[in-house]
Amino acid sequence: MDETEIIDFTREAIMLTIQISAPVMVVGLIVGVVISLVQALTQIQEMTLTFVPKIVAIFATIFVMFPLMIATLVTFTQKIADKIVAMG
User: Fold this and answer.
1) Model pTM greater than 0.85?
2) Domain coordinates in residue numbering, the chain
3) What three-state secondary structure class fits 1?
4) 23-28: long-range contacts at Cβ-Cβ below 8 A with a sequence spacing of 24 or more?
5) Which residues, including other chains, have CB under 8 Å from residue 73's CB and lie 6 or more apart?
């Protein structure tokens, strides 16, 4: 395995990390903005109000997206394992 293959695998691993974490981050961002708007409109300034809806939304997103996340990680792991077997 030469340097270009290592760089390619590293680049692919970083992109995979972004692909897996993006849905969770986007849902957390959207829920945070919506809760902030509700707080601004109703003038409720409770600091802990944002945490519970965000946590519930993030866990729900992880629960829904988990099969896709696992399938993507398994595919990437098999690709790396095939490369390792081909070297030896």
Assistant:
1) no
2) 3-87
3) coil
4) 23/61, 23/65, 24/58, 24/61, 24/62, 24/65, 27/57, 27/58, 27/61, 28/54, 28/57, 28/58
5) 16, 20
H or E segment to which residue 32 belongs? helix 3-42
- Which residue has tokens 């070297």? 87
Question: Would you say 6 and 87 are in contact if contact means Cβ atoms under 8 Å apart?
Answer: no
19-73 per-position pLDDT tens digit: 999 999 999 999 999 998 998 898 888 878 888 999 999 999 999 999 999 999 9
Contact indicator for 59, 28 with CB cutoff of 8 Å: no
pLDDT (0 to 100) of residue 70 = 96
* Token duo for residue 78: 């098999």
The tokens of 10 are what? 């590293």
